[in-house]
Specification:
Radius of gyration: 26 Å
Largest sheet: 5 strands, mixed
Structural class: alpha+beta
Length: 645
Amino acid sequence: MSNRLKQESSPYLLQHADNPVDWFPWGEEAFAKAQQEDKPIFLSIGYSTCHWCHVMAHESFENKEIAELLNRHFVSVKVDREERPDIDSVYMSVCQALTGSGGWPMSIFLTPEQKPFYAGTYFPLSSRYGNVGFRDLLAVIADRWEKDKSGLLESAEHIVSHITSEKADCYTEIDPTLPNKAAALFSQAFDRKYGGFGRAPKFPAPHNLIFLTLYSRLHQDSEALEQVERTLENMRRGGIFDQIGYGFSRYSTDSRFLVPHFEKMLYDNALLILAYAAAYKASGKLLFLDTAEKTADYVFREMTGDAGEFYCAQDADSEGEEGKFYVWSREEIEKLLGEKAGKRFCEQYGITQQGNFEGRNIPNLLNGNEISDDFERERRILYDYRKSRADLTLDRKVLTSWNSLMICALAMIYRVTGKRSYLLAAEKNQEFLETHLTEGNHLYVSCYDTLHSVNGFLDDYAYYAAALLSLYEVSSKQAYLDRAEQILEAVERQFADREHGGYFLCGTRNGSLIIRPKESYDGALPSGNSMMAYCLVRMSQLTDREDYQQRADRQLAYLSGETQGYPAGYSLFQTALLFSLHPPEKITVVLAGEKPEDILSALPLYADIRILAEPTEEYPLLNGKTSYYVCKEYTCLPPTNERPN
């Protein structure tokens, strides 16, 4: 028998529609029932490709005994964190405050007024090794609600008071020393043996690498670039990169980037395309361009819909086992490829009899072998066979924010390669977002089968504005710049905190929660506030408008205060600050028969480029040849036919 999730559009919620648990989606119906029946709320937050979400679902939410406990003593609410980042943000702060860590699945117990009194993540079905089991936890909380409800309510009030405590007033001055401090912190944390930063698990965090790439250019810091290059090369060599089907997994569970958490997320791959393409332009190393293009190839092949939309994620699990889809035995490979070719392939990709992962093998190039396409025939055979032996669940939800990141990535790779197919894919996706995820200047979080979900949050608006700016930068089409301005004006109306600075995650069109979160820290994804700093700085530079300069300065000052404790945790803000402190030179190109893409890919990456197909009165051709008008450091140079370097 189906529960109330059957009517939802989220693939994650639909995965639980046939649970014996009487799930409710987040909404007034659930809260009213909890009030009327005087029951606490059990809130479960996760997403469709989360391995441990699957484990807890199979162990507990499909268990009739557990379902009976939940249905009798609680009102159970299921939330997709990707559709409701506001709910996730509020209760993640609770989970981290109470337990010292967070993650998914997130398990929170609330009063009917949405106030939390207990939090955790994954709970096993039964208590073991000193860890409380979900069955026992439900019994204890149900008993306490009946016998000591006042104690739980008092605890909830204390928790809410803690997470809503007022912060000091924000900075009013921009701190120009922060990028230097962030770079120093990255240098201290850099793993000189394996690349990456800190200890395992290692997340790609491409926005950190993008910051360091730009920092290395502006400060002539070869050490920062070396950190980027070593990290990107080792990730390309490791098992975190799918050597058979391409694309990156979510993170590495070890220091070497060998063993990944196998799910593949759109946002990681989009940001990594940006990082690899930028590193190629900075270093000239073709390996980085090859990796960016192979990652884009993966997204086009595995995660793209017919209308140009990009899907969320591919699952880590197949046949109930994480990573089974991706691992191999040596015998399996030699049987498929033949003994001679199979032996060569295994030697190239570190495939051994004993295996490198639970008796099986994750193909990798950490052995130092040359990265090349010499094994393309063998790779295709293995890829085709792998697809035939199992299916991975694909989350076909389309998220505005993540699709916007992919537009930025495709604009970047078009800029460095000049291949128009990337620009056309970015523009097609932007048209999809306009058709299915916007109404006027209002955005929606996601859609599934073209049915959109809830009103957009700050990240949706900020990321989409960045996507539009990226398209303008590579196409010189005024319509993209005008649309970016409309979206940024909507942000100002809906999300601005006019008293303390910065922008709230939830806008005036979003529902109210126990607190109104405001995020500035860059986690696996850059925060909406960091992205707004970037967008406002870039709008001020692209339009030369004083009002945008003032707004950019306010946002940079606000984030200067937020980042004082740990500047390396706010790398996209640091990137925006670098743009502000070191404005890019402006290059106007007047074509004399060349293709725009050929000119664009040959010009410096750190420059604002406008390409004119025909001369104008202000920008005539010089000597009848393609002409370049360059302005930098508030000075315009004489026009020239020599291409700037």
